[in-house]
UniProtKB/TrEMBL annotation:
Pfam family, one: NAD_binding_10
Record-linked InterPro entries: ComplexI_NDUFA9_subunit, NAD(P)-bd_dom, NAD(P)-bd_dom_sf
Domain of life: Bacteria
Protein name, entry field: NAD(P)-binding domain-containing protein
Gene Ontology molecular function, alphabetical: protein-containing complex binding
Lineage: Bacteria, Bacillati, Actinomycetota, Actinomycetes, Pseudonocardiales
PANTHER family for the chain: NADH DEHYDROGENASE [UBIQUINONE] 1 ALPHA SUBCOMPLEX SUBUNIT 9, MITOCHONDRIAL, NADH-UBIQUINONE OXIDOREDUCTASE 39 KDA SUBUNIT-RELATED
Record-annotated NAD(P)-binding domain positions: 9-173
Length: 252
């Protein structure tokens, strides 16, 4: 019987698709979740919380690999990753596969800096590790537009473009990495198209049948300047196939 693979954040946008891919590949899967569930499931669920450190030892015990998808969307990612790494060291040194973001070393966004710090933590952890950086997911671009649904104007980041990638394609890649040998930092993964934020927002509005003025805003500061320079893009790694239009068509 093969050891299971643990997925942190296994009920989130990316994690749940990773779980499905691993199950489809015939692997036993364990999910660390803050909430217990009495329902029957195809995977094992361990109740715990990376922020509090509860249940983490039980979650990592006996696993072959850990796909770390859980995120706090902020600086707390560093502390939760340290909790996970420390537990992994106590329980057999499993292979950790970490999902990161293209540009964490070029865009001075606090969340990106936290992701970069986690990357560095893994490289010196003594654990076997693999890191995959991807560009933004399609649903993030859609969410930015949808959050302005009640406004007569949709604001976009002036002078900036994005290269959104499909979460399903990223999940397939993470599942492949989890069942393989530790590979260090693997090639980045970007979406198939680089398009201006304004253009992507207009695409979203057309697909959802909304009429809005789309107004690019040139925001001052180092973070916006890094986005305008394309620090978050991977034009040489446009390996995704699902376009933003494909995503919207499937969604709507």
């Amino acid at each position: 019987m093969r050891e299971p693979i643990l997925v942190t954040g296994g009920t989130g946008t990316l994690g749940r698709v990773v779980v499905r891919e691993l199950l489809d590949a015939g692997r036993d899967v364990r999910v660390l979740s803050r909430r217990s569930s009495p329902e029957q499931s195809l995977f094992e669920r361990v109740t715990g919380d990376l922020r509090r450190g509860t249940g983490v030892d039980a979650a990592v015990s006996g696993v072959a690999a850990i796909v770390h998808c859980a995120t706090t969307l902020g600086r707390a990612d560093v502390a939760t990753a340290r909790t996970l790494v420390d537990a992994a060291r106590r329980h057999g040194n499993p292979h950790i596969v970490y999902i990161s973001i293209v540009g964490v070393d070029r865009v001075p966004l606090p969340y990106y800096r936290a992701k970069l710090e986690v990357e560095r933590m893994l490289t010196v952890s003594g654990l076997p590790w693999t890191i995959l950086r991807t560009t933004q997911f399609h649903d993030l671009i859609a969410r930015i537009a949808s959050l302005q649904a009640r406004s007569p104007v949709n604001l976009t980041l002036g002078g900036a473009a994005f290269q959104p990638v499909d979460v399903g394609e990223v999940a397939v890649r993470l599942a492949e990495l989890a069942v393989g040998e530790p590979a260090g930092r693997v090639p980045d993964m970007g979406g198939p198209e680089i398009r201006s934020h304004r253009d992507l927002t207009r695409e979203y509005l057309r697909a959802t049948g909304r009429r809005r003025l789309v107004l690019p805003v040139r925001v001052p500061g180092a973070i916006s300047a890094a986005y305008r320079r394309g620090g978050h893009l991977a034009p040489e790694r446009a390996v995704g196939r699902v376009t933003f239009a494909d995503y919207l068509a499937a969604r709507t």
